[in-house]
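Shipment paperwork, digital attachment
Item: protein structure file
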Amino acid sequence: MRYQLSIFVMMLFSAVLSNISLAAQQAEDVNSPTKLEDYLEFAALNNAGLESAFEQWKTAVEQVPQSKSLPDPKFTYGYFIKEVETRTGPQRQRLSFIQAFPWFGVIEARTDVAAAEAKAAFKRYEAAKLELFYKVKDSFYEYVYLAQALDLAKQNLELLKHFEEVARTRYTAATGSHPDIIRAQIELATLEDKLKTLEELRTPVVTGLNSILNRKTDLPLPWPERPQFNLVKIDRSAVTAKMIADNPQLQALDFEVAAAKAKLELAKKKFYPDINIGLDWIQTDAALAAGVRDSGKDPVIAMLSLNLPIWTDSYKAAQLQARAQMRSRSAKKVQSQNDLVAQLEKSLFEYEDSARKVELYKGILIPKAKEMLEASEVAYKAGTVDFLSLIDAQRKLLEFELSLERVVTTNLQKLAQLEMLIGGDLG
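Attachment content:
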């Protein structure tokens, strides 16, 4: 019985340790993203710039209920240091309550300004999120390229070592020359230097990613998982129309124009007075003389007052200011749209150019380079071509493979940029 109890305790302890280990592994995985989705989620939750844009939106939202409210009512208390003797009795103290009401339409215009500015702030937050996701994707794809370039360099390094052995074998058999071995060693040293450069490039790339993710810049990041790559066909006219309709920067400017129009309406209301309505109560003691009618009765006074909007030059200046701001926002919207269309056209060209190059390298250049390398190795072993031809074929294959990885990376980066511009996914 004691033995079974010991076994049960050990199993329970083992299960607890397993759960702790699993939880620790999950926590570690959260802080060590490998997939693009993990990077995007981490950035959305931790990026300081996005958090700032979100708080600015919250700030603008909280302005809306403030704009709807009336001014605080005013309460006045007066105590008669020297009593005022009246027919109905001496007056002791006085209480006044006054509420100001803006002119008709002022609160509505003020609320329209705040609501439009809140909507503009939300669209700026959306734009900041899209820009952040683009930066994450751009840096992530660069990190993937670095991993692929390192892998290719290592593979070619092994291939060069094999060629060096072939050259040594031919030299030993007196069918090759010593310079072939030297050439192989030169190529090996060159490729090892390139490999070293790629390895050292990892530090600045990881530092840039950590900066975007709001992590300590010296924290390591595991090598990323390569996402599945597919070329996306893009309709130029549809993409342009979608960008003009859905780009959050342009939508934010639309709301800024709406806010400027509401400010103009608000400026026009300055020519009208505010209405103040109040009550005045005076405490009155009983009259000193007996039999006085209404003796000790407290008077209650209803009050109505208006401010006098006589400084018309100031109000006209406020209108001119609001009109200028509205024209400024409208012109900024036009220029921003022109700039974004130009940027979109450039990105579309670079995307389509990279897509064409991907098909060129995949379909023609790399298969032909591999065929050339295999034929050159066979011919070199047979003594029908020199070692330079073999090395040149190997170098050309490495160049094409690296170029393919580069244009694939460029294609993905430009696709991410297009998605940022149109405010949606294309893949």
